[in-house]
# Entry
Amino acid sequence: MEKRVTFSNYWLAGLFIAPQLFLVFTFFYWPTGQALYWSLTLEPPFGGGNQFVGLQNFMAVFGDAHYWDSVIRSLVFALGTTAISVGFATVLALFADRGLFGHSIFKFAYFLPYAVPAAAVGLAFRFTFTPDAGIFGAVNHIIPGLWDPSRNGGQALFMIMLGQAWKMAGYNFVFLLAGLQSVPRSMIEAAAMDGAGVFRRMRDMQMPMITPTFFFLFVINITDSFVDSFGMIDVMTRGGPSRATELMVYKIYLDGFEAKDYSLAAAQSMLLMLLIMVMTIFQFRYVERRVHYN
Amino acid sequence: MVERTRLFDILTQIVLIIGLVILFTPIYIVFVAASHDFKTVNMIPMPMLPSGHLWENLTKSWQQAGFSHVMITSLIVASGVAIGKVVLSAMSAFSIVYFRYRLRLIFFWLIFITLMLPLEVRIVPTYAVAANALSPVQGVIDFIASYIPQVSIQLPEWNLLNSYEGLILPLIATATGTFLYRQFFLTIPEELAEAAKMDGAGALRFFFDILMPLSKTNMAALATIMFVWAWNQYLWPILIVTDQAHYATAAMQLGKVVPGPSFGEPPVWNTAMAATLITMMPPLVVVILMQRWFVRGLVATEK
Amino acid sequence: MSEISIRGVMKSYGRNTVIHGVDLTIAAGAFAVILGPSGCGKSTLLRMIAGLEKISKGDIAIDGKVVNKLEPRERGCAMVFQNYALYPHMTVADNIGYALKVAGVSKDERAKRVNEVAKSLALTDYLGRKPSELSGGQRQRVAMGRAMIRQPKVFLYDEPLSNLDAKLRVQMRAEIRKLHNQLGATSVFVTHDQVEAMTLADQIIVMNAGRVEQVGTPSEVYRKPATRFVASFIGAPPMNLLEAKVTGRTEVAIGSRHLMTPHHGLANGQSLIVGVRPEDVSSISGETLNVSFVEELGAQRFVHGTFEGQDFVVQQPPSDSSDKPATVVFSIRPETIHLFDAASGLRIEPVSVTAPAPAFA
# Structure
């Protein structure tokens, strides 16, 4: 889309866009280039310039079993939280779309969790699920030792997944409801005239019509699970027990800022950026084009 | 909706109320835990009704974590990000939409691509720039100067560690707002710009007299969502702030109110939950007050 | 009062040419209407006069001064837009006075002139309102007021009445013409509505596909359409256009029927288009129309059908009977016939035949 009417004082156009370009260049493009440089070089232990080592850092990353563990863990985490969160939000949105009495209050209340800082979500869930206090620890009274996320890695990961899913549910709800409300009323009525009941209509009409929303949320949720999980992991498990909750971003943080191995962290950063870019481009190029009903 | 049977209406309400309960339980637990004394909060399970120690826990936690100071820091950072975004993205979107110059599309894509990669996935490189924010510019100057003999320009260093600029600027450097404004500007009828031109207004006048007043709702939406987003930042502040006494933000304090999971000593849950409550209140209040704008911004920016 | 002269003006977007060379003079103080179907380039031409659109080739001069390079504000034009283009966040007074504010006119002076304009448009009571609180007609008036306040040499109207309902449109049409007479500036009015064009204009410019088809007074355009396109565009229902062949020096054949024409020296065998307005058809028997349906309008009725296998419409006086007759008899009076060359579409004048009349005067 283009404007037909434009202005012609180009120095003004330049002046207006300059600050944003400066920030983007300084905090985005230059650092990204820098990371690429680091990922291809090694810093000698006794000073001096960086030495070009080709793909050695990447090889080191690929050869590291912990790295692959973190990738798989991240994917499990991402897919799991997305499924829980989007599924939950879909149910709520389908019912909230009926617009009965009091629904505006529900709608308003549902997205509140999205405004809660990830670190606060982490603490709230850590307390709720702590084995020796809180709420969920009560199961240990029935079967002693059943629940202990500080020892059981699977339980720890599950606990963080719940937190992330909880945080994103409201966000997903907002988009799903908007998607449902853009389905033409007349189409629902036509389906009703054709004899389709409520649940049939949900399945045959509404769900297919919001497929684009699902795909959009799918990508956003996965990206977000990489990004937002950091605060949660840091206050809940610090990546433990024994690396069981060490997701990709957290591992980059540990390698780069705790172990101070910038080259290794940079290589992992590049890989993560590549992954996210591929996913986003996939969404733009492929999904958006295939799943549209206009 | 077509069906209006009583039974289905009741089912609908039940499902939605269950949803509400699930989504509110964690917040409620935080509130209840923050209202108990040390002994009751450690009972298993914790009693689910609030008791009377809320104020006491809040004050205690407020002092322990130095909230008087961190809240102000967070407020400055979140407002700075919100205002910076609102202003800078309006300007850059105006340049991209209302002018037609050769570099326009390149600029648009340069800015647009930043939508893809959140700060968290590129912390390592961004952190490296923070030590001297002018190093990229210096790099460009050095590169150009290498082709011109006997010229060298040395910029001063601009260290962003432990500074408000460091907390704010990298968060502004993404395309969210630019994209939002661009979409909005494209919906403004062409005739409005034409009418302004016929009335003798130039680009600047049009921007300030027509475009900005019309963008008020977008500004509110963008500012709300950016305020909340910046307030909730965790990873970037813990990297860039080493001077905890002066530049710690509220969210990053939460990493310290409870000892790590493997450090043995039992956490003081009631004050920890009080701190959690204090930290999540400002974004919640903003969202409650600015409800309409927040949802609109969420949908418009697609985050 | 300013004359507008348009010389060899072309407009293209890349390879796509939308205006193919227009030459035109609009007399000072005239009310000129540019009429044409959508997409004919009429709005583009207007916007080039306004300075909102670059001129690809040729010159536009206002008052003898070429304005190609001037900004809109420097051309002395004011414009009323199709959807009014009022500033939604400003009051009526601010909308009207905005041009003066930009020009740096003092606040008192501005208020005074806004009041004068508002008074002449009966908007005084609405000065404090926002555009969204006004009716369509009131918005239209504000748009006019915004144009008037600068006392421009030229008023440009881009289909300003198309968003109004039928009744209001008639009323605003009269007001616009009255205003034009009072202000004495040159007006250029773009529309696709021929009734608007006929009732408002001193001079009608009919455009089609980026070209001017005819320039003339309303009655010239109606009585002597210069091209087949103008003939088909003006008149409601439009002129009947029948394919015909020349069969003699003053005779043409439509199918099996032969007609005398006032034209002389037609070339035998030449393909022509014969034009007859429904209202010019006489009820004397001669030809036969196979009726397909009847449009009853009260004051008259239009009988649609086929004549010699081609669509044909006949106007009849009102009738009490609501029957649809199977056939209707009519005859074509030679003096009402318009002839157009089948290939070029140009009008063939009754007297001279060998050289077709020029496309536009």
